[in-house]
Amino acid sequence: MSFSHVIAFAVFVGAALGSPGLQAADPVAPAAAAPATAAPDAPAVPLKPGDATAGQAKSATCAACHGMDGNPASSQYPKLAGQHEDYITRQVEMFKSHKRDSAVMMGFVMSLSAQDVHDIGAYFASKVSLPGVADAKLVQRGEAIYRGGDRNANVPACMACHSPDGRGNPGAGYPQLAGQYADYVTLKLKEWHDGKTWGDEDRAKIMPAVVKGLSEGDIAALASYIEGLHAADANSTAAK
Ligand code: HEC
Ligand code: HEC
Asked: CA 180, CA 200: separation in Å to the nearest integer?
């Protein structure tokens, strides 16, 4: 069974349904900090490749939630450390255009220029995601689906796109998952499972189709496995 087969059979709910998301628990009011941006009247210059040094200064407002080095203190915020620059850029553009709905993020990205976003993306991409720890009781089920999928439930192997060690594939737009907080991963997988989408581009249609057949237990197991996933694990598993 191929992935395109899985995806072709999935039914998409077009409308992104309102979801409680993470906003409710957010301690930092978006109005409290003004994002660091280039002057709005700056002359139109061609976009340069992301500059991590410039991005570090521009990411000061992001640090309150995502951590100075992209490793947040709280598991309600996603780790950005080590995430691919293009993936970060794409997400910020989707927040701006409301394709990816987040009241919290909206307040911080609207005034960022395209160059700011590339620089910030380059900065977080240059950092290293701190490995987490998986729940020993969930690892086996999580690993089985991550590496092999679930044929009966029409779920493809996550590693086919996100790679065995969770580093993803920047060229194809497949994000890094390794070490990501289980709380955040659970929330995203549940939202897609419940019909939420990130717009109607081909890339955004993949995950809602992938998660269709997952049970709540599967989602918890995958999220825990992903939080504990790092390069060394993938190697030792592959060597078994
Ligand atoms: C007040 C807390 C807060 C601040 C400040 C904040 N974020 Fe976020 N960010 C969030 C939350 C919450 C999410 C998860 C949104 C969702 O999916 O519901 C998120 C998600 C993201 C994502 C998507 C991550 C992924 O793995 O898909 C990116 C990229 C991001 N933020 C970048 C930024 C940048 C750049 C800044 C600074 C300009 C910033 N954030 C400031 C709370 C914050
Ligand atoms: C066919 C390729 C493909 C497969 C298979 C796949 N994914 Fe994904 N995944 C993607 C793409 C593409 C995105 C980003 C979507 C976007 O940017 O619109 C993504 C995003 C994600 C995210 C959000 C990451 C973040 O930082 O917000 C999570 C979590 C995730 N996938 C988990 C999984 C799990 C768990 C599986 C296996 C059950 C899986 N994926 C299988 C392509 C895939």
From this structure: 25
